[in-house]
Specification:
It is built from three helices and four strands; from the N terminus they run αβββαβα. The protein is globular, with a radius of gyration of 14 Å. It has a four-stranded antiparallel beta sheet. About 10% of the residues are buried. It has one domain. Strand 2 and strand 3 form a beta hairpin.
């Protein structure tokens, strides 16, 4: 596998934690439709967390995703 192809595969393997209609949501890559919507309203989070979610948080591995979900959903 050439370097360019390998890099393209790596770049596609990510999710974005963001917002959807006022709720915390998980998006697949650059998709505009959420893969999962959580019942947690973004407005209940501190302003700094709300801003980060509005920007979208790119997550590249399961460990980081689990940590973020614990932080935002607990």
């Amino acid at each position: 596998m050439g370097m360019k192809k390998r890099l393209a595969v790596i770049l596609m393997l990510y999710v974005v934690l963001g917002t959807w209609k006022g709720y915390v949501a998980l998006f697949e890559g650059s998709s505009s439709e959420p893969r999962q919507i959580f019942p947690n309203p973004v407005a209940s989070l501190p302003l700094q967390d709300q801003a980060a979610l509005e920007e979208g948080i790119v997550v590249r591995n399961d460990r980081d995703l689990q940590q973020l979900l614990e932080d935002y959903l607990s």
